[in-house]
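ok, trying the design again with the full structure, not the truncated one.
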């Protein structure tokens, strides 16, 4: 036995996309030199964290136990704040862990800082 079904007229469904929830941010990568020129006070803060590392790039800070990699910075700017993300290195690094130092600066001049650890 064979049965078939059909409609004389298919209803068309129109989907209207009225969502305006587009992310509103700007993502850029800067060299350390470019970052220092544009954000002197933040650059000084980051350099002070690395400074007790016997003035050697790549040496670990004895105070914090890590060094902020100053070769490149990721900048995400949004309305109200910007985040500056730097890779972090330790003297003994785990192969399954990635760390970033994130400095979040608000438009009123205040900031928050984070050490983010990603296990994979």
């Amino acid at each position: 036995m064979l049965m078939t079904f059909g409609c004389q007229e298919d209803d068309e469904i129109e989907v209207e996309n009225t969502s305006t929830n587009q992310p509103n941010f700007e993502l850029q990568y800067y060299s350390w030199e470019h970052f220092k020129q544009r954000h002197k006070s933040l650059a000084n803060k980051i350099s002070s964290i690395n400074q007790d590392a016997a003035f050697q790039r790549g040496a670990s800070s004895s105070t914090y136990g890590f060094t902020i990699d100053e070769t490149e910075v990721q900048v995400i700017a949004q309305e109200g704040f910007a985040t500056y993300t730097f890779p972090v290195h330790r003297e003994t690094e785990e192969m399954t862990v990635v760390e970033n130092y994130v400095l979040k600066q608000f438009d009123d001049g205040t900031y928050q800082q984070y050490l983010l650890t990603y296990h994979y």
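Keeping the full-length input from now on. Residues 25-119 form one domain.
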